[in-house]
Design a protein that fits this description.
6-stranded mixed β-sheet; Phosphorylase Kinase, domain 1; two-stranded antiparallel sheet
């Protein structure tokens, strides 16, 4: 500010009298600061909403003419090049990347999220929107795997890929029907949302934008979109392929809980919902249609995960824009008071918090907080009537639960808790079981294979990382439940990502890793350079720990022909049964790769296609071979070493003695047998040693065995 103040002050002397006065004040002040080299941080005025900008029928702002690259948008504003729209950007994943810059960004992510106060006085989780929507939150691989097919013949592609002859209906809504369809190659079942453009007043561009928003979000409690199909030549329907969730919506489950859920179950569900909303708000997405109908269960198991769906009314707040909207939309009983105001009154992201309050109220009591026969009367009640907790239904519900609902359903937005503050409410902390039980640090301490998987992924070559990302993306979510639960345990602030501080905390009990090594692993796992671990990045890094078999039968994740074919088909964009360089380039590049990324990807593609046939293609058999060789090589070496150790123990101490070996216990998951402590000590020492060390220990074991035999003879 010193030099700027000096220049501005001097320049102001030649203009209007009012500005001359300002100049006379700032010029000497700036000169003094400049002499001493003092620098002060300038403060920018808060961005004002552009009310004059045109919006479409769903209130979505027009697409900006220029957008920064995906990688640039994931950076903090201070880290962007001077001309962030056109300047070349060095990818955070480049081999020559500046690790100190990435470390600084990761350290920044460990600090509390900086909220900002909106015009209404609400402390918004959108903060400075430095992660705001408009860029993908997923890594480049996952972004490239999710495609929109909109050219001529798209419907033919749909029929070729999915069996539409045996589809059946699983749900119906105002904008279309949801059908269950099977992938022709893998047999995996997906949900296919069929949207008829004749029945809704929405353009194809608006639908594509909704898909773009949902597929950019990477959270365990947000339903995943895989691809979409729209035939531009006379097509009247769009087909959206999504994650299959068979457990029904929360509003349907209320039929079995007519007096509401118990407080523990309700608080756990609400904390998961809060996490999804926090994640959306942190990334510049305001859902604007939070309700029981839009949370669905993954399956019908008692502990099934709940997923947020339907982003048709979602708004995106770009970096630098104000948290401000004014379109009237949503489901009436969930709409906040300010959305009922006459005219074009503004509102902010606090409307999602109000809707969560309504959702919580209904989960606890089985009743609506406000009910009227007409829309006009309902709006009046929401705006003016106090929130009531009538007897006898609310008599059994704790004061903390009632206070939680009251805190989210304040008439004035300025008095509402933000989602990130609501998760720390005493009711959530005391009743939710989401973070109860064993913590991530002790979980990882007892599952060293997961730590080994994280380390292996960090040190892996690019093809191994690609293969694991594709496998994680194509694996059904229920098969990854163990890793998903671990991710949630690590994500202690419910942000939907794992920060460097949370990663350090989770690995603090690992004897083989110091903090410097932990930080290095974190930076290598952070594929998109966001300073945090996204959900897909974590799943990719831990996937190999879930494989039970290398060459034998399928393991817990089913690493068999089906899984590998699903991954292969994800990469095979045109479905011709072969991978070509364009297929892999599309997956690597996502949407807007910079020149540096393009060069690195070109080198990687050439390396991967060394096993291609004469026509430059990689078929399924070659893909399987490369994936199995790269993914399971390290694990195979570990298991082979463990087998050698077990064999030496059995040779030295007799058959069955090796059952006490920790390696054998982890492989067979059998209960350790009660053996003499001296033998257990020797066997523990055997594990993790090289052959020379193991042989030496085995020799000592044999000597002790002989001495024991002599002692036994002496007793006789």
């Amino acid at each position: 500010m010193s030099v700027v103040a000096l220049v501005a002050g001097l320049a102001a002397l030649g203009v209007s009298p009012a500005r001359r006065l300002v100049g006379l004040v700032y010029a000497p002040f700036g000169a003094v600061l400049a002499l001493f080299g003092v620098k002060l941080a300038s403060q920018e005025a808060p961005a004002k909403s552009n009310k004059s900008s045109k919006h479409n029928k769903l209130g979505r702002p027009p697409k900006p003419k220029h957008e920064a690259t995906i990688a640039q948008m994931s950076m903090a504003p201070s880290m962007l090049p001077e001309n962030s729209m056109t300047a070349s950007f060095v990818s955070p994943n480049h081999k020559g990347r500046n690790m100190s810059v990435r470390k600084e960004r990761a350290e920044q992510s460990t600090k509390p999220w900086r909220q900002h106060r909106t015009a209404s006085g609400f402390y918004s989780d959108l903060g400075e929107a430095s992660k705001a929507a408009g860029h993908r939150m997923t890594s480049s691989i996952t972004a490239g795997l999710t495609r929109q097919h909109s050219g001529p013949g798209a419907h033919a592609q749909l029929e070729a890929k999915y069996d539409l002859g045996h589809q059946y209906e699983v749900g119906r809504g105002g904008c279309g029907t949801v059908m269950a369809v099977k992938h022709r190659v893998t047999g995996q079942t997906f949900a296919m949302k069929v949207v008829s453009l004749r029945q809704i007043d929405v353009s194809i561009e608006e639908l594509q934008r909704e898909i773009e928003i949902q597929r950019s979000l990477d959270h365990p409690n947000i339903c995943r979109v895989f691809e979409s199909f729209f035939d531009e030549e006379g097509g009247t329907e769009m087909y959206i392929i999504m994650e299959m969730c068979t457990g029904g919506s929360l509003v349907e489950s209320m039929s079995n809980h007519k007096r509401g859920y118990g407080e523990r179950a309700a608080a756990t569900l609400v904390e998961k919902m809060l996490s999804a909303v926090i994640y959306c708000h942190h990334h510049g997405v305001v859902h604007r249609d939070i309700k029981l109908d839009n949370f669905i269960y993954e399956n019908d198991h008692p502990d099934a995960e709940v997923k947020l769906i339907d982003f048709g009314f979602a708004a995106t707040i770009k970096a630098g824009d104000a948290d401000c909207m004014h379109e009237r939309l949503g489901t009436p009983i969930y709409m906040a008071p300010e959305m009922w105001s006459k005219g074009e009154a503004d509102y902010d992201s606090s409307v999602d918090v109000w809707a969560l309050g309504v959702t919580t109220y209904m989960l606890l009591s089985g009743e609506r907080p406000f009910y009227a026969n007409t829309r006009r009367e309902l709006g009046r009640m929401i705006r003016h009537d106090p929130l009531r907790f009538p007897s006898p239904r609310w008599d059994r519900i704790s004061p903390d639960a009632q206070d939680f609902c009251q805190s989210l359903m304040q008439k004035k937005p300025a008095l509402r808790l933000a989602a990130s503050a609501a998760k720390d409410h005493p009711w959530i902390k005391g009743s939710s079981t989401l973070h109860k039980g064993i913590d991530a640090a002790h979980e990882l301490q007892s599952h060293t294979e997961i730590v080994a998987s994280l380390t292996s992924f960090a040190e892996a070559d690019e093809f191994k990382k690609i293969a694991l990302e594709v496998l994680a993306f194509s694996t059904p979510p229920e098969a990854l439940k163990e890793m998903r639960d671990l991710f949630v345990k690590m994500d202690t602030d419910d942000s939907g990502t794992v920060s460097l501080a949370e990663f350090r905390e989770a690995l603090k009990l690992s004897d083989s890793l110091d903090e410097q090594k932990i930080d290095e692993i974190f930076l290598d796992l952070d594929v998109n350079g966001s300073g945090e671990l996204d959900y897909s990045e974590f799943l990719s890094a831990t996937l190999s720990s879930q494989l039970k078999s290398v060459n034998g039968p399928s393991g817990s994740l089913g690493l068999d022909a089906t899984s590998l074919e699903a991954a292969f088909n994800m990469l095979d964009g045109d479905g011709d049964g072969y991978l070509v360089k364009d297929d892999l380039a599309r997956a690597l590049d996502g949407q807007t790769p910079c020149l540096d990324e393009q060069a690195r990807h070109a080198e990687l593609i050439e390396e991967i296609f060394t096993d291609a046939d004469a026509q430059g293609r990689v078929d399924l058999a070659t893909f399987k071979r490369k994936v199995l060789n790269d993914i399971t090589a390290d694990r195979g070496e570990r298991e082979e070493g463990a087998s050698r150790t077990v064999g030496l123990a059995e040779m030295c101490l007799g058959p069955g003695a090796s059952e006490t070996s920790p390696a054998r216990r982890r492989l067979s998951k059998s209960r350790p047998s009660s053996r003499p402590s001296s033998r257990k000590h020797l066997l523990d020492g055997l594990e993790g040693q090289n052959e020379a060390q193991a042989a030496a220990v085995a020799h000592e074991a044999a000597r002790l065995k002989a001495l024991q035999a002599e002692a036994d003879l002496a007793k006789k």
